[in-house]
Specification:
Blueprint lengths: L2 H23 L3 E6 L5 H4 L10 E7 L4 H16 L3 E7 L4 H7 L6 E6 L4 E6 L4 H12 L3
Parallel strand pairs: 2-3
Antiparallel strand pairs: 1-5, 2-4, 4-5
Keywords: Membrane, Transmembrane, Transmembrane helix
Pfam families: Thioredoxin (PF00085)
InterPro entries: Thioredoxin-like_sf (IPR036249), Thioredoxin_domain (IPR013766)
C-alpha cells in the first residue's frame, strides 16, 4: 500500500473515533460547580420576589437545528415542575456570558440553582430523564 493509502486509513480511523466520541458525549449532563457571577440574576431578569428554584440557561444560535430540539426538551421538563425557568440566549448577542462560561458549541445548557451556582452543563441535546433527575436533585429540601 502506498503512503497515500496509509494517510487515508489514518484519516478515516480518526474521523470514526471522533464520531464515536461525539455520539457518546453529546447531551450528557456533566456535574460542574461554578460559583454565582455577580450581576447574573439581574442580567437574566431573575431578581424578583420569587426567583425560580432552577434555571435552564440555554445558549443557542440562529441556524442551529439541535438548538430547536433542545428548546422543546427543556420546555417539556420546565412544564413538569413548578418554579423552573428556561431562558434561551443567542450566543451572538451575549458574548460576555459565552466567554465567561466557556461556551464553545451550541446548544449548551447550564443548570443553575436559585443562588446562581451552575451545577450541571450539557453540550448537545440533553435527555429529558437526565434533566428531570438534575432538577429533582436541586429542588430537594435538605
Amino acid at each position: 500500500m502506498s503512503t497515500g493509502g496509509y494517510v487515508l486509513l489514518a484519516v478515516l480511523a480518526l474521523s470514526a473515533g471522533f464520531g464515536i466520541y461525539r455520539k457518546l458525549s453529546d447531551g450528557k449532563l456533566r456535574g460542574e460547580i461554578v460559583p454565582p457571577l455577580q450581576g447574573l440574576t439581574e442580567h437574566l431578569h431573575l431578581d424578583h420576589d420569587h426567583p425560580p428554584q432552577v434555571t435552564f440557561l440555554q445558549f443557542s444560535s440562529e441556524f442551529c437545528q439541535p438548538c430547536r430540539v433542545t428548546t422543546r426538551v427543556l420546555d417539556e421538563v420546565t412544564n413538569s415542575f413548578p418554579a423552573i425557568c428556561h431562558i434561551e440566549l443567542d450566543v451572538v448577542e451575549h458574548l460576555d456570558l459565552v466567554k465567561t462560561y466557556g461556551i464553545t458549541r451550541t446548544p449548551t445548557t447550564l443548570i443553575i440553582d436559585k443562588a446562581g451556582t451552575v451545577h450541571f452543563r450539557a453540550v448537545g441535546v440533553p435527555k429529558a430523564a437526565d434533566l428531570t433527575n438534575a432538577v429533582s436533585a436541586l429542588t430537594e429540601v435538605p
